[in-house]
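Comment thread on ticket #2218

A.B. wrote:
> Attaching the input chain for the structure job we discussed in standup.
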Amino acid sequence: MGALSGIRVLDLSRVLAGPWAGQILGDLGARVIKVEKPGSGDDTRAWGPPYLKDAEGRNTGEAAYYLSANRNKESVTIDFTKPEGQRLVRELALGSDVLIENYKAGGLAAYGLDYASLKALNPRLIYCSITGFGQTGPYARRAGYDFLVQGLGGLMSMTGRADAEAGAGPVKVGVALTDILTGLYSSVAILSALQARHASSEGQHIDMALLDVQVACLANQAMNYLTTGVAPKRLGNAHPNIVPYQDFPTADGDMILTVGNDSQFRKFCQVAGCGEWADDPRFSTNSARVANRATLVPMIRQVTVFKSTAEWVATLEAAGVPCGPVNDLAQVFADPQVQARGLAINLEHALAGALPQVASPIRLSDTPVQYRHAPPLLGEHTQAILSELLGLDTGRMAELRAGGVI
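C.D. wrote:
> Ran it. Output below, let me know if you need it in another format.
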């Protein structure tokens, strides 16, 4: 039994932030029913290549993007632009604990599927709305996408090479990080609302916005600005508050050096054969190293190029200095620690047999994550769900299918 066994989630979301939250809840044991548009489904089903291949190497039509965020769900196809489809969704919501949606603010009101309408039917329903800019404010009606919000929310003003360097300019993060973080915050909010419901017996509306999450996750950089009034600049891979804390070239590539305190810096200097640096007043404290970054970093670069990445990692780890390689994904999944933690798993898929997945990082000792379902085929569970939960017989479902409702 998972930690959320007995909780039913109605997932009307698509793309990434909402589905990511739903997948987290599903991993924790909730029953997640994904409602999709007949014929096309979640937008990301078509976001390929790459597509999953079957055992014979044939394209299954299942996009890898979709497969990353939809395990432990059951897919039901319902066209809720039709009155009969709206009725089906309302009936499913009546027996659900949580509903997740990421339509434009107010977009579901036209179908009677907004929070106020469903709360009247099910006062215990926790209704999580995920939008680009939230339910209020001058941007509330705008569409919001991760890339757009990474720029608007300030992240890209700090990501990329320093302005004086070749190749300088704004750079987005290599994954849709704002979507992922919004999914994480949304799952935390949903769990909090479930806990609050124990005392109040009432559900509530959760208003999540990508922009809010992006600004909140600026963390120390936001505080650097708020406490000084000076906007942080791009530093490439360097850290604004710690030196040395960035990438350095080696004889065969690059390594990451993350010196977090003065003791670690002294150990690094000893391993590097430059013990005098630790006593130099320009470098002996982190504050001094930050002030003299432009002098120290080139000096370190001149030293690190004389050993391979593996040699540096071995000697620095032995000395207690945090460091590591810059891995590509093939190296990541071959890494012994990644393998020891079981971060690559396989699930049984209806079309492909074994489906690779990235495991959940959540480790609970008594109610561990369970991998019950591979990401479902479009409408794979429509008949079973409507029969089990709504009591529809095959004749009625045939009528609905003929009318394009399911």
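A.B. wrote:
> Thanks. Noting for the ticket: The radius of gyration is 25 Å.
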